[in-house]
Design goal:
Chain A contains 8 helices and 11 strands. Chain A is an alpha/beta fold. Chain B is an alpha+beta fold. The radius of gyration of chain B is 55 Å and the shape is rod-shaped. Chain B has 8 helices and 12 strands. Classes of the chains: A alpha/beta (about 220), B alpha+beta (about 500).
Chain lengths: ~220, ~500
């Protein structure tokens, strides 16, 4: 999952990015509204965490922009504007959620998950693929009742594939969604992590879930 | 209030009726009595006995006591409605001295006196004593003076008067009570606007300060009061609104810095970190907390500076030292960015003013200058006094202020947009505080600026330079008037030419 965090307070922005990366997200960070507008157009994000009081292009305008160019992109407003009028305005302009500062991390983290979940049209935090069960909130994976330990990157990759189960996902797609703009581009990394994942969830099971489509990418799903 | 009005009306009515009643009672009585007496007199004078031979034959001689034996020891009888007793002129002992006759022969009858008395059977009578003449039957005789006491019933007289009295009393009492009752009702109606007004005022509370008294519904006399009350309510509402807005702004401004602090710590604690990680977190947390503290202090200062009680006693202030301490307090901001601060102020400049306000002015101007300066920029601070007062200028080489913004920069929470250094705790209150303090010191502040080149803030305070006090008034100094440094101080400003 790749997120864009647009927040102009430097220390808060960094804490947000650190916390979200710890949870396995790839995070692009910007302090400026104009840069945020540009990034949203250029990169595919799974959600945007948006502060309203940004320099150069303010949050309200950004919201309108996102809704115009990427209507399905989930947006969570994170702001100091706490009045009822402001909350209503944010939600009416198209925000999927509105969180007022200061906030508790646990709640914020859960709301981010919820907003991503809804963006994929799912309603619970448990994603099932055949006998594989992924609890996105708890970050736990089990197959046929057997719990598995995955690293943050592995989990991120698995979640990404699972949310698109049955669809072929190209290497580029995977890489764009799991690595932020500062990571070095290397499609080989994707192959390596797919290998790690296979080793954990497919090894020892008769039915494989991760399939390679030559020239196209990978897909997670039942054997065809 | 209503009872007092009713009672007053009652007393006035009763007193009026009492006086009027008494007057008419006495007038009526006198009239009736005169009428009665005249009637009795008439009858007394026309008694047939006075023509009776018996009386004549008695041959009353002057000075002789003689009884007239007509139907008794005295000639008495009942005539018309009255009874009478005729006494001879001679029987004078019964008459008071003043009445004793010195009658001549042809005097007219005269009323000597009249009294009220009650007979044995309870009848009230009026007796008139008349001197009359018994007419002679023969031409040779002289008319004999006699004294007639004629008594007539006074019952009707008394009855009329009693009825009159009762009527007056009864009507008076009833009228008084009716008047009092009407007064009570009317006063209630008259006072109901006041009750309405007090209801409106009672319903006003902090939450419902927008209610006003409807002036047009009130009687003319109450309108000025109602208008004043409405004005006062308006002022109260304005003041409360300003406070509410300030609080809302302040709470909003504090949210992001608090979030930065809290989130930073929370994220750090989400999992185990290496020691360096914790150190870094703690250092960031300290910076964030310090900015928060600075914000809160500025907010508190703003709240306090709005209150007049915050005026301090003016005291002799060493300007050079004050400037030095202000420069030291912003050095932490300036040094890392290699911004230089230069101060120009003579060491003997002493001014009578409120030192803490002045310190706040200088510190805020300096930190503003540092905030908006470029790295490696220069800031110049100058202070001096002259005949006009105390001057202070702060010049920077920063980004400058556009002409449209020169008045807006002194508004609370204004920040130059492009430089929203949120992390530095810049609340946008600095210049607003400066303006508040300058105004409290009865001074002026002006700014000159060129966008991209820099700005110069000039503060002028009308204060008494301390040196001038040493000079004697007789030396004929320039006639500038030195104003008092601050409100509510104990000092007296003495001008050289004796004006104060």
């Amino acid at each position: 999952m790749r997120l864009l965090v647009a927040e102009d307070h430097p220390s808060l922005a960094r804490s947000l990015a650190d916390g979200l990366r710890d949870e396995g997200y790839a995070v692009d960070l910007t302090f400026d509204g104009a840069e945020a507008a540009h990034l949203v157009k250029v990169h595919p994000y799974d959600a945007v965490i948006l502060d309203i009081m940004l320099p150069n292009v303010d949050g309200w305008s950004l919201l309108k922009l996102i809704r115009k160019h990427k209507p399905m992109l989930p947006v969570l407003c994170l702001t100091a504007l706490e009045t009822v009028e402001d909350r209503a305005k944010g939600l009416d302009l198209g925000a999927d959620d509105y969180v007022v500062k200061p906030f508790a991390w646990r709640e914020f983290s859960a709301r981010v998950r919820a907003v991503i979940r809804r963006g994929h049209g799912q309603t619970t935090s448990i994603v099932k693929v055949e006998d594989l069960e992924i609890d996105v909130a708890r970050k736990s994976v089990s197959r046929a009742g057997q719990n598995m330990a995955l690293s943050a990157r592995e989990f991120g990759l698995l979640e990404y594939l699972a949310r698109r189960q049955g669809q072929v996902v190209s290497r580029t797609d995977i890489w764009e969604h799991l690595y932020d703009q500062h990571d070095e581009a290397s499609s080989n990394v994707v192959d390596v992590y797919i290998g790690y994942l296979r080793n954990k969830i497919d090894k020892g099971f008769k039915a494989k879930l991760i399939h390679t489509r030559r020239g196209l990418g990978y897909v997670l799903g039942p054997e065809l | 209030m209503r009872r007092r009005i009713a009672l007053t009306i009652l007393l006035i009515t009763w007193t009026t009726l009492l006086v009027a009643g008494a007057a008419s009672y006495w007038l009526t009585r006198s009239a009736l009595l005169a009428d009665l007496d005249a009637n009795l007199f008439d009858q007394a004078v026309n008694l047939p006995e006075l023509l009776s031979p018996a009386v004549m034959r008695s041959g009353l001689a002057e000075g002789e006591k003689k009884t007239v034996p007509v139907g008794g020891p005295d000639a008495s009888g009942t005539h018309n409605s009255g009874r009478y007793v005729i006494r001879s002129e001679a029987d004078q002992r019964t008459l008071p001295r003043s009445e004793q006759p010195r009658m001549q022969g042809n005097e007219t009858p005269r009323l000597l006196g009249a009294t009220f008395s009650t007979l044995a059977d309870g009848t009230r009578v009026r007796s008139v004593t008349v001197r009359s003449l018994a007419r002679p039957t023969t031409p040779q005789e002289r008319p004999t003076p006699v004294v007639v006491t004629y008594s007539g019933s006074a019952e009707s007289f008394h009855r009329v008067l009693e009825r009159l009295l009762l009527t007056f009393a009864g009507c008076g009492a009833v009228t008084g009570l009716i008047a009092a009752g009407i007064a009570y009702r009317i006063s209630s109606t008259a006072l109901s606007p006041l009750r309405k007004v007090s209801q409106v005022i009672g319903s006003i509370s902090e939450r419902r300060l927008d209610r006003r008294i409807v002036v047009d519904e009130l009687p003319l006399e109450l309108r000025p009061m109602a208008k004043r009350l409405n004005q006062m309510l308006g002022k109260l509402q304005d003041s409360l609104n300003r406070r509410r807005r300030f609080l809302a702004n302040a709470s909003h401004e504090l949210r992001t810095p608090v979030a930065a602090l809290v989130t930073g710590l929370e994220v750090s604690l989400l999992r185990d970190r290496p020691a360096e990680g914790y150190k870094a977190t703690l250092a960031t947390a300290l910076t964030d907390a310090s900015h928060l503290r600075a914000l809160v202090e500025r907010l508190m200062e703003q709240a306090r500076s709005e209150m007049f009680e915050h005026d301090e006693l003016a005291e002799r202030t060493d300007i050079a030292k004050l400037l030095e301490s202000c420069v030291a307090s912003v050095a932490g901001m300036a040094l890392p960015r290699e911004i230089s601060l230069r101060t120009e102020c003579a060491t003997d400049v002493l001014v009578r003013t409120q030192p803490n306000r002045l310190r706040s002015i200088v510190t805020n101007l300096l930190s503003n200058a540092v905030e908006y300066s470029r790295d490696h920029g220069k800031i110049a601070l100058k202070a001096w006094t002259d005949a006009v007062g105390f001057h202070l200028t702060v010049r920077d080489e920063g980004m400058g202020i556009s002409p449209q913004q020169t008045s807006a920069i002194f508004e609370p929470f204004f920040r130059g947009d492009a430089v929203r250094t949120a992390g530095s705790g810049h609340l946008g209150l600095g210049l607003f505080l400066v303006k508040t303090h300058v105004q409290a010191l009865s001074g002026q502040i002006t700014v000159q600026s060129v966008v991209g080149e820099g700005s110069e803030f000039r503060v002028l305070l009308p204060v008494v330079p301390e040196e001038s006090r040493a000079k004697s008034p007789a030396e004929g100094l320039p006639s500038a008037v030195f104003l008092q440094a601050a409100r509510k101080t104990n000092t007296q400003a003495v001008a050289p030419d004796g004006l104060s």
